[in-house]
Structure formats: structure tokens, C-alpha cells
Amino acid sequence: MKMFTNNTLFSKLTFAVTFSLVTMGLSANLHAQETLTIQDAIDRMLENNLNIKQSTLNVATATVNLEQSKAALYPSLSGTINNSLNYGRSLNPATNQLITQNFYSGDGTLSAQVDVFAGFSKINQIRQNKLLLEAGNSNLDKIKNDLVLQVVTAYFQVVFNTDLLKASKEQLVVAQETQRREQALLEAGNKTLADISQAKAQRATAELNVTNAQNQLTISYLTLSQLMEMRPDSQNYTVVKPTIKDIAQAQKSYDVNDVYNTSLSFFPDIKLAQLNREAAGKAVAVAKGGFFPRLTLGGGLGSRYSYSMGAKAFGLPADPHLNDQISNNFYQNVGFTLSIPIFNGLTVRSNVKKAKISYETSKISEQLAKNNLNKVIAQAVADLRAADSRYKSNENTFNAQKDAFNVIEQRYAVGLVNSLDYNTSRTNRNKAEVDYIQSKYDLLFKSKVIDYYLGKQITF
């Protein structure tokens, strides 16, 4: 009896400890799971996305190129020191004497030069690099903009699949309850095997719908996590659903021209195309600089020295002191160099032609970007109108099917409706609910796409 009591006490303690640990684990898991708004998802993507980081490095490279083109305007300065050991009969550069003797000789020079005129090619290169730097920043904005739209799409997919899974689970509960009721009626002799088979089929379909909805939700979470550069196994967050107020605000009408003109003033794709066109125009000016003469101002200073080996042994006069040689041989020079291009295999002309072709191509690309933006915005406005109409129709259909099913369900409970009519009504009601959920989020998403082209912050 005592042993039984101890074992019971031990079992209770074990259960208490286990329950506490499980509770603590569940509490920690719930605490660790965060709620992610759509703006949180966008901010996390902007912070972690590797494409953005790569584009940021490209902007840094363009900054260096601009700094280097500015530095090319400065004079160049270089120093040179030459030393040599001479054998046999040779000219001593320090004394200008032809001697047959081994000696050391050397010279040092310091020279500088600067381009006075080079066809304005360096100035135009600076201007082009400024435009290329701005284009790099616009390309960075474009990448961010495109990724924001991808995050919004993935976020809405998560929200839709969450509601779809919830609806599928509710439908499964109804199917399970119907099967239990059909089984009880079968055992009481009021139903046939055909009725119970129909109920089992409906339950199996509902279970399949739950499985499919769960898989779709998992995939949509994975897509969103990948856009935010999160590990696939770190899905410890839920998303915020839009409210009825958000749905009501989405039911707006927009004018295509108003949206297009607003977007045209700031949209990164258009700004990038414009800057690329302007940079291509400066590239033509840079290439034309090769037609002009180049005038360079240069100057320098230097000195020479030498040391004869074994001069005393051969009875030759001793070499002057090193300081005296450097002082006596010190020289300076200054001058202009004019380089006139006469014929260089038509290289400059070919470069100018290619630069002009690139400029014309960039003009076409800019117009294509504008046309594409206009087309996309017109489609987005049309899609929003269609989504609004579809949402209203599906809302009415769902409410009607829901009311019809409630009536059928009540009549089915008292035996006034057969199983086939009941299951048909429930299937219609379930389909109407899925269509309603889809159209609801499709309307809100289409509305946020318009906000995207208007430059508004995407929130709800």
C-alpha cells in the first residue's frame, strides 16, 4: 500500500513537471512567433535582399568612376631615378666625355604635365559619369520597387491561403458531422448505404481541400520568406489580415491618365531610361573629342652624376664631388606638346557612329518604357474595375448560397431533403465562399497595385 502511494505520488510529480515543461515550451513558441505587417515585410526585404546589396555596390563603383574622371583633370607628376654600370668605351653623361673606363652613372628627374585642351573629352566624361551615377541610383530604386511589388503579391497570397485554410477546415468539420449523423441514421434504419457513401465522399473531398490549402499556405510562406532572405526553417511569424475598412477603401475608381501622369514624374523605370538616354548623349560628345588636337603643358627638372672606378690607379683626375655634380648638371625644362590627329584608321569616326547608335537606341528604350508604363497602368485600372465588380457579384452569390444552404440544412435535419440535394447545396455554398474570399483579396491587391504606381506607401 505504501509503495502504491509512492508510485502514485511519483506519477503525479512526473506529470506536473512534464506539463510545466510542455506549457513553458508552448509559451516560448507563442512568444517567439511575431506578427508581421506588410510594411514589416517590405522593410525586412529592403534590408536583407542580396540583389539590392549587389546594386548598392554597383552604385559605389559608379561613384569611384566619377571621382576618377574628376581627378583626370589634375596635372600628373612623376619622378624617375636611373642608375647604370658602364663598361668599355662609352660616353659619360655627367661630363660628356668619351672614356674607356668602368664607371657608375645616374640621373634623376621630376616631371609634370597637364592637358590644356583635349576636345573637352574629359569634361564630357565627368558629365557622363555624373549621369551614370544617377542612373545607378535609379536602377537601385527600380530593383527595390520591383521587389516591393513581389513582396506585396506574396504577402497577399499568404493572407488568402490563410483564410482559405480556415474555410476548408470549417467545411471539414461540417462534413465530419454530416458523416456521423448519416451513420447514426443508417444504424437506426433511416438511411441507406448510398447515403453514408455519399457522406464519406464529401468528407474525403473536404480533407483533400484542407491538405491542398495547407500546402498552398506553406508554399506562399516560403515564397515570402525567400523574398525577405529568411531561412526556410525560420518561419516563426504570422501576417496581419486586412479589415473590412480596407476592403471598402479599395472600391475606388481611377482615371488612367491621372495615374500615368503622376507615375511618370517619379517612377524609377522612367527616370532610369531618361538618365541612360542623357548619358548616351554625353558619350557622343566624349567620342567627338577624338577629332580635336590635344595640347599638353609639361615641365620638369633633373640632374646627373657619375663615378669613375679606379681613376687614381690609372692616373686620371678624380671625379668631382657628388654634390658638385648634381649642382653643375641641374637642369629645368618647360614646353607645350600639340598632338594633331590626322589619320588613325577611322577609329574616332567609328566610335562616334557607335555612340550615336547607342544614343538612338536609348531614346527608343525610353519611349518603350513610357509606353509600357502606360499600358501596365491602363491594365491595372481595368483590373481594379473588374475586381470590384467580381467582388460584389461573389459577395451576393455567397450570401445567397449561404442562406439557401441554411434552409436546406434545416429541412435536411427533419428529413424533408434528401442527401443528394443537401450535398449539392453544401458544395455550392463552399465554392461560393472560396470565390468570395479570392475576389475579396484580389480587389484589395489590385487597389494596392494602383497605390504602388501612385507612389503611395502600401499599408493596411
UniProtKB/TrEMBL annotation:
Any single Gene Ontology cellular-component annotation: cell outer membrane
Family assignment from sequence similarity: Belongs to the outer membrane factor (OMF) (TC 1.B.17) family.
Main location: membrane
Name listed for the protein in its UniProt record: Transporter
Signal peptide as annotated in the record: 1-32
InterPro entries: OMP_efflux, TolC-like
Origin superkingdom: Bacteria
Compartment(s) of residence: Cell outer membrane
Keywords on record: Cell outer membrane, Membrane, Signal, Transmembrane, Transmembrane beta strand, Transport
Database matches in SUPFAM superfamilies: Outer membrane efflux proteins (OEP) (SSF56954)
Pfam families named among the record's database cross-references: OEP
GO MF annotation, one: porin activity
